[in-house]
Write a structure and sequence with these properties.
Layout lengths: L2 E10 L5 E7 L4 E2 L10 E4 L1 E7 L17 E7 L11 E2 L4 E8 L2 E10 L3 E2 L3 E8 L40 E5 L2 E4 L4 E3 L7 E6 L2 E2 L1 E5 L3 H6 L6 E5 L4 E4 L7 E6 L8 H11 L22
Parallel strand pairs: 2-4, 17-18
Antiparallel strand pairs: 1-2, 1-7, 1-8, 3-4, 5-6, 6-11, 8-9, 9-11, 10-11, 12-20, 13-14, 14-19, 15-16, 15-20, 18-19
Length: 292
């Protein structure tokens, strides 16, 4: 007979201590020593193990982003045994649903949730799939605009509060941000990049080496008609004023990790701090080959 296990994590409101609670749809369940977690008692509280709708695309569309799934799980609370959950914050916390068969446990859903809804005899958990954590801005670092010229790489009042750029993969013909007018210093990304090619009105400018850090870039002598980079900070500096529009080709990395799937993984890990994903499930090229 199939039954379900529920694991929910909450932070105690009084002191922030995290606690995980274990429930089951069976009369009683204790995990085996080989399970994760081992030798754990799951209380018989699950009335509805949850339903959630996931769609590859949004309604009425055949492309674009997949839609975020929502659902709910019901726990029995006629005896008030779950009343203490009101002392915890569950919003945005982890929820795991497992299926138990004769073959053992298997995870069927990992997601997050909103604060539980308490009724007279049930506790309802509003569940959401993990895509919800990606519903936030990718770029959040802003220019301070506090240069004290001729020094600084944060710009002045004209770019104060502007989002700093970031490069993933490789991009072409982008317009860099002028972050220091006195030293003709530009930024293409607020994180390290692999290479920068610079053009003035479409004409390539000669590269003249790389500096290890921002301080070194700012004191280096840059010959007229050339540029120096600080790849570690996504910056470059011109040796003379440009004739026209300055543009760049930039590569953030050197290799297969420039492709779309790997860029999504990098954004998820670097920006949103996700860690529980399966890299082996990421197909990263047109031939359908997994690169671990």
């Amino acid at each position: 007979m199939i039954h379900y296990l529920l694991e929910i994590t909450g932070a105690r409101i009084s002191d922030g201590v995290l606690n995980t609670f274990y429930y089951t749809s069976a009369q009683r369940y204790i995990s085996s020593p080989d399970d994760t977690p081992p030798d754990t008692t799951y209380l018989p509280r699950v009335l509805q193990p949850g339903n959630i709708k996931l769609a590859m695309f949004q309604d009425g569309k055949t492309g674009g982003a997949s839609s975020i799934g929502y659902g709910d799980i019901s726990l029995a609370n006629k005896d008030g045994g779950l009343d203490s959950l009101i002392e915890y914050s569950f919003n945005g916390r982890s929820i795991v649903v497992k299926e138990v068969t004769a073959a053992g446990q298997s995870i069927i859903f990992t997601g997050t949730m909103e604060q539980p809804l308490f009724t007279m005899d049930t506790v309802s958990l509003m569940i959401r799939d993990r895509q919800i954590v990606l519903e936030q801005p990718l770029l959040t670092v802003l220019y301070a605009g506090d240069n004290i010229l001729p020094d600084g790489v944060e710009g002045v009042e004209d770019i104060k509060g502007r989002q700093k750029p970031r490069v993933y993969g490789s991009v072409a013909n982008i317009t860099p941000v002028l972050v220091n007018t006195a030293k003709l210093t530009y930024q293409v990304s607020d994180k390290a990049v692999y290479s920068i090619a610079v053009f003035d009105n479409g004409v390539p400018i000669t590269a003249d080496g790389d500096c290890s850090d921002v301080a070194a870039l700012q004191v280096e002598t840059v010959s007229a008609g050339t540029f120096k980079t600080c790849l570690a900070a996504g910056l470059f500096r011109l040796g003379s004023s440009p004739v026209g529009q300055v543009t760049c080709n930039v590569a953030a990395t050197d290799g297969y990790d420039r492709v779309t799937d790997y860029l999504l993984v990098e954004a998820a890990t670097n920006i949103y701090q996700l860690s529980d994903y399966s890299l082996a499930d990421v197909i990263i090229n047109a031939n359908g080959v997994n690169i671990p």
